[in-house]
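testing teh design pipeline on a random one, pls ignore if ur not involved
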């Protein structure tokens, strides 16, 4: 039997089995669906929508090209990607997954980077936003705001290490025109020139650009919501039929070799599928704090198969391959766990030894309280933002695709 036929049989059996499991466990499946919908409704949609819309407008008006020219001397020698990669990296860290993938795909469609450079770029611009790390994981799950500093440091340093590693991916890339224009034009002058040319080429009026940005962003977020709900149900079904426990037995051996508590095997498996529930299970484990921080850092960096499925769907519309992204997530998970191990004492234990009035000035000025307050605000007003945004989307979509059509 050919590999193609085996693949067809596997998917048929898998989807059929999942359907039967959902039918046999309607209550649990409904609860898992509601949980996934709540995450999307309250947090994901309202927190990502502004970044997606603003990013579309920045690309349309040429601001991204402007930033790209300025960051070219930094991004190309260090990460071997064009300067626009700096914009994607910053937006990815600020807004969280899967913003880095969406922006990478977008600038690839604009022909601002090559496919190889896009594969390098998307590999290290995937990250959780600081609101999730401080608000949900550190405070919500671990009940320790200061732990967010350690988790964030391990997470973003892991991103940096992946970027430095992936710069060697693919060998030399000479397909992009890399003329040394900086010799002729000063960087600022060249940046403004690219900004002006991009704005001139954009023929859409402001209203049309804004409408397109809203529609495109909400369509992407609807797709993301579907994946979150699907993997929430899938994760619950695996737990109900005890598949998670069987896989955890295999992982227990690996954790033992690494001298990490085997109590974290089930939370680790859960986190591989879904990042939020996985970190919640890690925080509730009886393992020691260092082991929990390392596993939580791995889960945050790996992102969960739910997020990776979202990224795969976004990249499917381009010629960017998903495999380098998946390998980079494993690398970042390892990097972040190792970094968390080495930073646990200086960034957590040593800080705990200080009294609140003896904390270093740096940490007093950079307290994570802003992230915690913003996270709580999102939880309260998030559903209202989601409802209003969906109403605007229905209006714009209907106006363009229904009401404008003549009978």
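output:
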């Amino acid at each position: 039997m050919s590999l193609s036929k085996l693949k067809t049989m596997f998917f048929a059996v898998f989807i059929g089995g999942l359907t039967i499991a959902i039918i046999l466990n309607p209550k649990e499946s409904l609860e898992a669906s509601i949980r996934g919908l709540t995450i999307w409704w309250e947090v994901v949609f309202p927190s990502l929508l502004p970044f997606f819309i603003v990013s579309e407008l920045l690309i349309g008006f040429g601001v991204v090209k402007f930033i790209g020219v300025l960051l070219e001397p930094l991004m190309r020698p260090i990460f071997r990607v064009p300067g626009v990669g700096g914009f994607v990296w910053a937006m990815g860290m600020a807004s969280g997954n899967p913003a880095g993938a969406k922006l990478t795909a977008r600038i690839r469609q604009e022909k601002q980077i090559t496919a190889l450079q896009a594969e390098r770029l998307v590999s290290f611009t995937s990250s959780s936003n600081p609101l999730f790390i401080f608000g949900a994981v550190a405070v919500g799950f671990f009940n320790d705001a200061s732990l967010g500093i350690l988790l964030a440091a391990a997470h973003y340093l892991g991103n940096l290490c992946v970027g430095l590693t992936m710069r060697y991916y693919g060998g030399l890339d000479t397909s992009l025109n890399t003329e040394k224009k900086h010799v002729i034009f000063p960087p600022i002058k060249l940046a403004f020139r690219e900004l002006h040319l991009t704005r001139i080429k954009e023929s859409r009026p402001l209203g049309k650009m804004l409408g397109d940005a809203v529609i495109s962003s909400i369509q992407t977020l609807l797709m993301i919501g579907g994946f979150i709900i699907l993997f929430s149900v899938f994760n619950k079904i695996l737990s109900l039929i005890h598949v998670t426990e069987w896989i955890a037995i295999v992982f227990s051996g690996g954790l033992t070799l690494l001298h990490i508590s085997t109590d974290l095997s089930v939370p680790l498996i859960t986190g591989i599928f879904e990042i939020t529930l996985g970190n919640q299970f890690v925080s509730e484990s009886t393992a020691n704090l260092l082991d929990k921080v390392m596993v939580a850092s791995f889960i945050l960096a790996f992102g969960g198969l739910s997020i990776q499925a979202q990224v795969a769907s976004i990249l499917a519309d381009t010629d960017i391959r998903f495999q380098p992204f998946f390998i980079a997530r494993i690398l970042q998970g390892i990097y972040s766990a190792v970094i968390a191990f080495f930073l646990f004492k200086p960034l957590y234990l040593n800080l705990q030894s200080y009294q609140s009035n003896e904390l270093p000035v740096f940490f007093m000025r950079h307290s994570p309280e802003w992230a915690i307050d913003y996270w709580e605000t999102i939880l309260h007003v998030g559903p209202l933002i989601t409802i209003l945004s969906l109403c605007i989307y229905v209006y714009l979509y209907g106006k363009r695709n229904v009401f404008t059509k003549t009978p």
